[in-house]
Each structure stands twice: as C-alpha cells, then as structure tokens.
C-alpha cells in the first residue's frame, strides 16, 4: 500500500459516523489526582518517586488549595502528575468510571532497585501482571493512589530528572500509561479510537490496550472492564481526571467543536496558565481533559527555579496575600532546585 492509500484508510477507517475527525492526540499530557496532607504528598513524589515539583500554584477553581505539579526537569507533557491536596479529605473508593492506576516508565532491570528503595522508606510494593514485554511494580502513595512502575522492552528515550534521591539509571522517564476501569468498555474504546484517534494494540491480563502514535511509553491507555465491581468515588487517593495532548489552542478549538458536534458536553477552553484545557466526560464515566503542549511551565519562572515559589495566574495576583495565608506552609526538598543550592 502506498502512503496516500495508507493515509486514506487510516483517516476514514475509524469513522463510521460519516465525518472526518481531525483529532489525533499524540499521547498523555497529565493526570490529576486528589491527595490529603500536602507535605506528605511532596515528600513521597519528590523523595520517594524522584519526580521534580515543576509548579507550586493553587487550584484556580478553589484558590485556598494548592495545585502541585510533578514531572521531569521541565514539566514536559507526558511526564506530569498533579495533585489537589485537601487536608483532612476523606478517602475515595477505587472503582469503575475512574482511572484506577497511573503508570510511570522506568528502565528495564530497575524494578529490584525500586522495590528496595520503597522498602527502605516503608512503602510496600509488589510485582504485578502487565502486558507481554513489560514488568510492573505496583504500590500505593500515602493517600492510597495506585502507582505502577513499568519497565518495558520498548526503549524509552526520554531523559529523567536528575533527582537527589533516585539515581538517573533507575529514574522515572515520564508517564507510561493510565489504566481506566469501566463497567462497559465499548463507549470508552469508541471515544479513544474514533474521537481521539488512538488505536487498539493488544489485549492481555484483562486489559485492552490502546495507544496514540507509535505506542511508545507515555502514549498508552489500558482499559479494564469491570461490570460487577463497585463504582468509583472521587475523593482522597483517587484520580480526578486524565488529560490528553493537543499541540496548540487553534487545534484544541477545532477538536472542541468536533466533540460538541458529536454530542459530548464539552467545556469552553479554560486558561490553566501553563496550558489551556477543555473537559468532557467519556461514556464510561471518566473525566477526560484535552490540554495544549504550549506555553509550558517556564512561562512564569525560569527552569532552574521551577517549583520554588508560589505562582499565581494574573487574575489571582491581587489576592496573593489572602491566598498565601490560606494555604498550608510546605517545605520543598533542596534537591528540587539543585543549581540554587550550589550558589
Ligand atoms: Zn488537568
């Protein structure tokens, strides 16, 4: 098949509804979850998982609460896990209609080191079943959120953050995948393939895997059907939403119009300062976001200083004093900004 024919088949093959969807995400952008005590969250993700805090800001919809962003050195799309830490929040329930696991990509052969590392900080972990060609270590963060580390036979070329607590040879390369648990997978798979331009790549261990682009780590969603399990309750230790990548706001607006035309209750474009976002709930119940790759996390502080001070969007700056008094004092480990320590 020549390239033109391959393109035509690819473009029309998914779309039995009769129109061409322009949306084709390149992969995962971020996952946002709910935590309790912010300092405990910071200590686990910086010192335990070896991620970098790339932004300390507040929940723009609830500015008395932090919004903490963790990722690689620059907070690149596909590396990001973010939290709303609400002190004293009750625990949620993992179940259908949720993303029930967030997986990070680590090098092959590193899981033994990780199991020892977590053991040393009092975190239990266990080898669990993944798809062929990958090893998986599963654990829970201090609020009960499930985190998996996946060592895949597909080489992950992304550079790790040079963390103070995790040697680079073992360190997290970025997101690997998100696991969605739904009562009926048909509508979820339809959204992922027909509306977001992903494709099914395999089925094993009770999961149907879909991928964007070349299916490299960071571009993967695993769907688990659980028709009889409990439905999820979004609160502490659960994922609030998962976000997929779109290059820019112009493309995002086209996708928004297409999703609306297909009957989804999709939001207006919202300014999240480091990207812009639209949200809609997929038929399985999981809240999806589509987020832009631009402008990125160095829009309001230099890369060396990411995460160092409380950053607010322009419309919240007039309330800075009240916000600073409302949020809990937190300490960021010095290794988060090593160049500043050496000064
Ligand atoms: Zn988000």
Q: What's the arrangement of secondary structure elements?
A:
Layout: H1 3-13, E1 28-35, H2 38-48, E2 52-59, E3 62-71, E4 80-85, E5 98-106, H3 111-120, E6 125-128, E7 134-140, E8 146-152, E9 174-182, H4 185-195, E10 199-204, E11 207-211, E12 220-225, E13 239-246, H5 249-261, E14 270-271, E15 276-281, E16 287-292, H6 320-326, H7 338-341
Parallel strand pairs: 1-4, 5-8, 9-12, 13-16
Antiparallel strand pairs: 1-13, 2-3, 3-4, 5-9, 6-7, 7-8, 10-11, 11-12, 14-15, 15-16
Zinc ion is lined by residues 30, 32, 241, 243, 277, 289.
Commentary on this structure:
With 343 residues, the protein is of the alpha+beta class. 20% of the residues lie in helices and 31% in strands. It is built from seven helices and 16 strands. A hairpin with a 4-residue loop joins β14 (270-271) and β15. The longest helix has 13 residues, at 249-261. It is globular. It starts with a helix and ends with a helix. Mean pLDDT is 92; it is low at 1-18.
Essential attributes:
343 residues, disordered N terminus, 20% helix, 2,3-Dihydroxybiphenyl 1,2-Dioxygenase, domain 1, binds zinc ion, 8-stranded mixed sheet, 7 helices
Provide a brief overview of the structure:
With about 350 residues, the protein is α+β, with helices and mostly antiparallel strands. It is about 20% helix and about 30% strand.
């Amino acid at each position: 098949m020549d390239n033109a024919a391959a393109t035509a088949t690819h473009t029309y093959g998914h779309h039995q509804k009769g129109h061409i969807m322009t949306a084709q995400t390149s992969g995962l952008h971020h996952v946002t979850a709910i935590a309790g005590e912010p300092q405990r969250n910071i200590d686990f993700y910086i010192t335990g998982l070896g991620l970098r805090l790339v932004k300390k800001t507040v929940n723009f919809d609830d500015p008395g609460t932090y919004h903490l962003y963790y990722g690689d050195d620059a907070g690149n799309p596909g590396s990001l896990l973010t939290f709303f830490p609400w002190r004293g929040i009750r625990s949620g329930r993992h179940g259908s209609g949720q993303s029930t696991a967030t997986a990070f990509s680590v090098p092959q052969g590193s899981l033994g080191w990780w199991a020892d590392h977590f053991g040393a900080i009092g975190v239990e972990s266990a080898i669990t079943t993944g798809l062929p060609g990958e090893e998986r270590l599963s654990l829970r963060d201090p609020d009960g959120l499930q985190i998996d580390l996946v060592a895949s036979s597909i080489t992950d070329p992304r550079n790790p953050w040079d963390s103070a607590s995790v040697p680079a040879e073992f360190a997290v390369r970025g997101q690997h995948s998100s696991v969605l648990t739904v009562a009926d997978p048909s509508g979820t798979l339809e959204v992922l393939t027909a509306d977001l331009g992903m494709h099914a790549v395999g089925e094993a261990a009770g999961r149907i895997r879909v991928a964007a682009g070349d299916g490299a780590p960071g571009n993967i969603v695993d769907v688990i059907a659980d028709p009889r399990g409990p439905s999820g309750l979004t609160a502490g230790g659960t994922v609030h939403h998962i976000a997929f990548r779109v290059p820019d706001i112009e493309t995002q607006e086209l996708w928004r119009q297409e999703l609306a035309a297909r009957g989804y209750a999709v939001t207006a474009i919202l300014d999240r300062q480091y990207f812009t976002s639209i949200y809609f709930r997929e038929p399985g119940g999981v809240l999806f976001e589509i987020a832009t790759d631009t402008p990125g996390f160095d829009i309001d502080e230099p890369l060396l200083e990411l995460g160092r001070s409380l950053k607010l969007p322009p419309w919240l700056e007039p309330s800075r004093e009240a916000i600073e008094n409302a949020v809990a004092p937190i300490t960021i480990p010095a290794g988060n900004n090593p160049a500043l320590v050496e000064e």
